[in-house]
Design a protein that fits this description.
Layout (H helix, E strand, L loop, with lengths): L5 H8 L18 E8 L2 E9 L4 E10 L2 E16 L3 E16 L2 E16 L2 E11 L11 E10 L10 E11 L5 E10 L2 E8 L4 E8 L1
Antiparallel strand pairs: 1-2, 1-12, 2-3, 3-4, 4-5, 5-6, 6-7, 7-8, 8-9, 9-10, 10-11, 11-12
């Protein structure tokens, strides 16, 4: 198990983020977004193209332990609240693709609901994802359920064209596993976002997002 030295965590926490940097499943019309979430035994990649500010098409690839999911999907902005200094969003995503596990390839459905609220200083989000098989083979059925909640704080306020940062804590619950807590430093500059993290158990996490 890889551990991040304590001195690096201290250095990360001395860094500093902006409202525009959140990794939403729908962006502005014509935008292409590449997002990747990585940690031990899990790699998740999402590529999206936004037709409008409310609708995007995407492709998800998730590898978790011995299962691989490849799912084309639609992402929809259900509701957005724009306030003077903050914004809230609700998204829904659904797709249908393949699950490669137990040396077999089976059809799989996908559903996701995500809500967030953010200002230039504070950030919260919660997301529920599920991949579920519809075949009747109960022994080999591989459903994957993931609930993720996050809260963040910007230690200072910077402009969009300056280096921005968030300090984030994330709570994950996957299937019947215990809740896992991860601390992140998120760095954002123009169209590139990077997150470096470590779990309380000593595991690592690395995420990134790029808008084209």
């Amino acid at each position: 198990m890889t551990k991040i030295p304590s001195i690096l965590l201290v250095m990360f926490m001395l860094a500093g983020f902006a409202l525009q940097a959140e990794a939403h499943p729908v962006s502005y019309a014509g935008a292409v977004s590449l997002m990747s979430y990585n940690r031990e035994n899990e790699n998740d990649v999402l590529l999206t193209y936004s037709f409008t500010r409310s609708l995007a098409v995407g492709l998800t690839y998730l590898k978790v332990e011995d299962a691989e999911y490849t799912v084309p999907r639609l992402n929809y902005l259900v509701q957005r609240w724009n306030n003077e200094d903050s914004q809230g969003n609700i998204y829904f995503s659904a797709g249908y693709g393949t699950d490669r596990s137990f040396e077999e390839i089976k059809p799989v459905s996908f559903g996701s609901v995500e809500a967030d609220w953010e200002s230039r200083r504070y950030y919260t989000s919660i997301q529920y994802n599920k991949f579920f098989r519809s075949d009747s083979d109960a022994i080999k059925r591989v459903d994957f359920e993931h609930i993720k909640a996050r809260a963040g704080l910007a230690p200072y306020l910077a402009e969009f064209n300056e280096l921005n940062a968030w300090l984030i804590v994330q709570f994950d619950k996957m299937n019947d596993r215990p809740v896992e807590t991860t601390q992140f430093i998120r760095l954002f500059y123009k169209n590139v976002l990077v997150e470096l993290g470590a779990t309380f158990g000593g595991g690592w996490a690395f995420n990134y997002m790029v808008h084209f």
